[in-house]
Design goal:
Blueprint lengths: L7 H28 L13 H23 L5 H14 L10 H6 L2 H7 L3 H17 L19 H25 L16 H5 L34 E10 L9 E9 L3 E6 L5 H8 L7 E6 L2 E2 L4 H4 L3 E4 L11 H11 L4 H15 L14 H13 L5 E5 L7 H13 L5 E5 L3 H7 L2 E6 L2 E6 L1 H8 L3 E7 L5 H11 L4 E6 L2 E6 L7 H10 L1 H4 L1 E7 L3 H31 L5 E3 L4 E8 L2 E7 L1 H19 L1
Parallel strand pairs: 3-8, 3-9, 6-7, 7-8
Antiparallel strand pairs: 1-2, 1-4, 4-5, 9-10, 11-13, 11-14, 12-13, 15-16, 16-17
Length: 617
């Protein structure tokens, strides 16, 4: 929901209110237990119950705020729980100093104020003050809450410090959530609270896409595979040297990607599994932090202005992100509100989008009862609603039947005006029909970029003539006939009853005579039927992948040579005392150590189980 425009403060506020309600109920029950007499005197006799309730409630809110602070440091819930529990226990240690009344009375007010910044210490001081009033037979009342019985600290001071703790912990949560967003998210610089752009934003004159690394890099021998930029078109997304490396020792998932995506166009990202398509989209939406480079979306930097960018961003991820108990209409209304659509226009936008998606009959159906294709169509509608200026679609038609897929194509074509759309797909037909420009990635690098016709001209070898033959056909005779009209013909394949020839596109003027000759002599040549076609996008894709794979093979071969050089001196050792042995093995260029022996294997299994329980339990 953050990727669709939900503010961070709203996310934390919802969780805060939710848990505050639980805290409120618990504190009310504890107050009743402390003050009600059940067969014996109450635990707290003289103190006003409302004072006890306020004291415990403020402490609960401060602990809740502290737990939010701890949660910002962890992406794994089990790790956060274990560490939070440890911190909570450690914060009780100063209580040992207060066990002696003389030591407690000797503390100055400044020290008590400082120690009260830890909520558990403030709780201990408050309990100490409450006990002193109870022992005096007076109890804490709202009229005497400011009275001091230990010379320098009152119950009012404790309540104030609990409020201060809550505020301080909340500020810490806001800061660390921005600086340490975890694995998913774009971090702010540590000094961001002191910057003008964070509070006031950028004016349009400050961030101008045309002034930001406007020139595309030189691709060297690959430059011919990139269609020239159109200077008169508005650039919706400008990507410059975008890089993502998940580990220092791994090949980049996205390697110095630079590309311009134009407003009003649908741009396809094609590539094999693991080529970097989804990683690129996640970086553009702020889901993953960048290793290097940058990108500008409608003039705003994804490094600094992601909150502003998300106000006009629509995302359709690979997997359906829907609420099971919400209807189609409720989903559209909810996400339209998140994107900042004015309240009085939400209903109109929802009904308009339902009409565009042709989901009138399903508008009141909860998402769990929808078919897979309808769910994908709803996700597309969520990405488009509220006039999203940038729409990122990650395999939007996966799981759809052919009819629903073509309906989705029509929807995207009708909604492209004024938007910058980027789409990934594994359907070549979809990319060929739907997209204005196509970018093909392999190994994290951009291999080519341009319109479908441009790429076919670059990678295509001409026209393909496919001939279905019979047992009377002699391929050499057919080739000789074709060569009379088209001198540069080449036999590409001869498989079963199918002959495939590649005809140079420069000889297209002679195709009419060739086809006439084949038609008149098809019986003599043993031809049942024939047909000609242009280079398909699938063939372009495969050739681009071959180019990318060559680069990957070179890198892999170099790493193997390096690994072999480093491990050529590998030795094996034997431990006589324990009866265990170790040996160095290598597989796919990776060196690993194999351990044998009962004692070592038992130790290794124990260690693995401890790590498993520590990480996943």
């Amino acid at each position: 929901m953050k990727l669709m425009g939900m503010k961070g403060w709203l996310h934390w506020s919802v969780w805060y209110v939710t848990f505050s309600v639980f805290m409120l109920i618990s504190v009310a029950l504890m107050t009743l237990i402390f003050h009600i007499k059940v067969g014996h005197p109450a635990v707290i006799i003289y103190t006003d119950p409302s004072v006890t309730f306020a004291f415990l409630l403020l402490f609960s809110l401060s602990v809740l705020s502290l737990s939010f602070v701890i949660s910002t440091f962890f992406s794994n819930s089990s790790h956060g729980y274990n560490f939070g529990f440890l911190i909570f226990i450690i914060s009780y240690l100063p209580f040992l100093y207060f066990s002696d009344d003389d030591q407690y009375m000797s503390l100055s007010a400044e020290v008590k104020f400082g120690l009260s910044l830890v909520s558990n210490v403030a709780l201990r001081i408050g309990c100490k003050t409450l006990a002193l009033f109870e022992s005096a037979g007076v109890g804490l009342q709202w009229s005497n809450i400011n009275e001091v019985v230990d010379h320098n600290f009152s119950m009012l001071h404790t309540l104030i410090m609990l409020c201060v703790d809550t505020v301080v912990y909340t500020i810490m949560t806001w800061y660390f959530d921005a600086v340490l967003p975890g694995v998913f998210g774009t971090p702010q610089p540590f000094y961001f609270p002191f910057t003008r752009w964070y509070w006031c934003g950028y004016s349009s004159s400050v961030v101008n896409v045309d002034d930001t690394e406007a020139d595309l890099p030189d691709y060297g021998d690959r430059s011919a595979r990139f269609e020239p930029s159109v200077s008169c078109r508005k650039v919706g997304i400008k990507i410059r040297n975008l890089t993502k490396r998940f580990s220092k020792n791994q090949q980049p998932a996205v390697d110095r990607l630079s590309i311009d995506l134009y407003e009003g166009d649908i741009t396809a990202l094609l590539g094999h599994n693991g080529a970097g398509k989804t990683t690129t989209m996640f970086m553009l939406t702020g889901y993953l932090r960048l290793t290097g480079g940058t990108a500008y979306i409608n003039g705003l930097s994804i490094r600094r202005d992601m909150v502003k960018i998300r106000e006009s961003l629509g995302l359709c991820p690979q997997h359906d992100v829907l609420f099971d108990t919400m209807t189609v209409e409720e989903h559209l209304a909810f996400f339209a509100t998140l994107k900042g659509c004015p309240r009085h226009e939400v209903n109109r936008a929802v009904h308009r989008m339902i009409g565009v998606l042709h989901l009138e009959a399903k508008s009141s159906t909860v998402s769990k009862d929808l078919s897979g294709g309808t769910k994908r169509k709803l996700c597309v509608g969520i990405a488009l609603i509220a006039d999203s200026k940038v729409v990122v679609l990650d395999e939007p038609t996966s799981g759809m039947d052919p009819e629903a897929r073509r309906q989705t194509w029509d929807i995207l074509q009708s909604q492209r005006a004024g938007r910058t759309m980027i789409l990934s797909t594994h359907f070549m037909e979809e990319a060929d029909i739907l997209d204005d420009r196509i970018a093909i990635m392999a190994g994290g690098q951009l291999q080519c970029y341009g319109s479908s016709l441009f790429l076919k001209n670059i990678y295509g070898t001409g026209y393909r003539l496919n001939i279905v033959n019979n047992i009377l056909c002699i391929p050499e005779n057919v080739l000789n006939v074709i060569r009379v009209h088209v001198p540069g013909v080449r036999l590409e394949s001869n498989v079963g009853a199918m002959l495939s020839f590649v005809l140079p596109k420069e000889q297209s003027a002679n195709f009419e005579k060739l086809f006439t000759d084949l038609e008149n002599n098809h019986t003599l040549l043993g031809i049942d039927s024939f047909g000609a076609s242009l280079t398909t996008l699938e063939e372009v894709f495969l050739k681009a992948m071959e180019t990318g794979d060559d680069t990957l093979q070179d890198n892999l071969q170099n790493s193997r040579v390096q690994s072999h050089t480093q491990t050529s001196g590998g030795t094996s050792s034997t431990g006589a005392a324990s009866g265990t042995s170790t040996s160095d093995d290598e597989m796919f260029g990776v060196r690993f150590r194999r351990t044998t022996g009962a004692a070592s294997l038992a130790l290794q299994r124990s260690r693995a189980m401890l790590v498993k329980h520590a990480v996943h339990s």
